[in-house]
Every structure is written in C-alpha cells, then in structure tokens.
Design a protein that fits this description.
There is one protein chain. The model has no long low-confidence stretch (mean pLDDT about 75). By secondary structure, the chain is an all-alpha fold. The chain contains 2 helices and no strands.
Amino acid sequence: MNNTLYTIAVILVIFWAIGFLGFHVDGLIHLLLVVAVIAVLLRIIRGAKPL
C-alpha cells in the first residue's frame, strides 16, 4: 500500500497529459489531475516512510 498512491498518481497524471495534450476532452479530464494531486498529498500528510 505504500507505493500504491504514488503509482495511481503517476498513472492518473499520464492519462491526464494524454487526454489534455492528445485529445480535446472536456474539463472533466482535469479531474484526473486533481485526484492525482490528492493522492500525493495524502501520502505526504500521512507521513508514510519510503521503502
């Protein structure tokens, strides 16, 4: 579970970049970026120790 949030965040940022730069998708694509940032912030706030 330690690296799961980072993995999800990276995947969401990649999907966001593809959707934002590759296709003309509505503003809903920005939701992926927001979710990725929240995942990283949760990881930082919880203070999980790196492996």
